[in-house]
Amino acid sequence: MSVPAARFDILQKRLSEHSQTQVLRFWDQLDDQGKQHLASQLEEIDLDLISHLIADKDEKPDFAAIAAAATAPPAVRADGSGAAWTTEQAFERGEAALRAGEVGAILVAGGQGTRLGFDQPKGMFPVGPVSGRTLFQVFADRLLAIEALYGKAIPFYIMTSDATDAQTRAYFEANDYLGLKQDNVRIFRQGTMPAIDAKTGKLLLASKDSLALSPDGHGGTVRALKRSGTLQDAHNRGVKMLAYIQVDNPLANLADPTLIGHHLLANSELTTQAIRKRYAMEKVGNLAQSDGVVQVIEYSDLPVEAAEATDDNGDLKLWAGSIGIHVIDVAFLDRVANEASALPFHRANKKVAYVNEAGERVEPTEPNAVKFEKFIFDLLPKAQNAFVVEVLPSEGFAPVKNADGAENDTPMLAKKAIVDLSRKWLEAAGATIAEGVMVEINPRFALTPDQLREKIPANLHVDEDRYFDRGHFDRE
Ligand code: UTP
């Protein structure tokens, strides 16, 4: 079906009003399908918004002033200090919520994973050091273990993007939804944003009939939850809060009762896990409180003096680094999803492949484009009683961001972190493990160190790589 002249005229006029007609440069060379494709993409994008973002005239927060006045956010530390309740009380409160079926899980898996350079969605990356299980499997195993323990289903909401949707759906279908009930798994797709040429502000073409589009950031979750009916699904199931994690962190304690309990006891609408920064200028988002509002100040916006400021004990005042693990109230998401511009767009300079004026595809070696992304942590200032819960990196944070060989956040380091934690649990339960041997525990075998102690024989010695799979000792 060809694109009618009237439709083309409207498109051309809109583009011309925004000085973006270059995207029609190859129109006459396109077949009907190509024309349809490009026209549909162009009709989907909000050119007014894009022009506004290109102009970049919005007033920026004065992060230097905010940071100078900022204090640490309300938080409970890893040793349990800082809250008016104990960690045990939080654990029990979280368990009650899980038993009541009030918790859903949301996994954001729409990123393009460019740094890792894996040619499938990151969730399909085999991260299990012994099992070879994928990130998706690790999280599904965890949910199955929690469901079995508390006797209530946890709906699993997985956000994909154009970059990951088809392969993710195919993967879940081909693998029997990883043991989860299909009815409890809901895959929904986030929106996209066009990339612009960093020098000229012009929309880029990825091919002659296609804009260079990318996912609109993990902050796109809010809109996508609403548009896809997923928020409504949560309501229908009586789910009151969503445990949010990012697909790249195999140590993420998805639907952790203690975190959920802290969230409830703090009467918070948005609770976020954080790690203690190892040094002042560490490249993580900084959780800070200023004027009673909790927010993330990106490391690039944090002046050195504020980063290095210490408290009476000589510890960093802004100690809390954001790691993208949250508990978010469904009612809060309802409220913010209805605010049109709930979250701001951030600009990121990235390498984006494009088609040049001569129609040749260019793979840049340096950042050439600006991408626009929303960040989920920008919800923090909008939340009542935002609260921070410290987790030790060894127990909750080992992201897979970069390819092996990089200095940090590599698959090799994530696998090592899994082995180290498994080893620690096993040794605490009385096992001895030979030097250099890799161990890994499926959450369905043991979800906690206490469960593990009940499961393994006394004086267990492990002298070769071993995966403690479900029913491991039942079979022996
Ligand atoms: P990152 O910011 O690390 O980006 O995402 P990425 O796309 O995975 O990796 P690079 O930067 O291209 O190398 C953190 C988490 O947020 C999700 C990712 O899937 C990951 O779980 N995310 C990111 C989305 O779901 N959508 C997005 O638009 C961006």
Automatic annotation (TrEMBL):
InterPro entries: Nucleotide-diphossugar_trans (IPR029044), UDP-sugar_pyrophosphorylase (IPR039741), UDPGP_fam (IPR002618). Keywords: Nucleotidyltransferase, Transferase. It comes from the Bacteria. The keyword Transferase applies. Its EC number is 2.7.7.-. CDD domains: UDPGlcNAc_PPase (cd04193). GO terms for molecular function: uridylyltransferase activity. Belongs to the UDPGP type 1 family. This is Putative uridylyltransferase. The lineage of its organism: Bacteria, Pseudomonadati, Planctomycetota, Planctomycetia, Pirellulales.
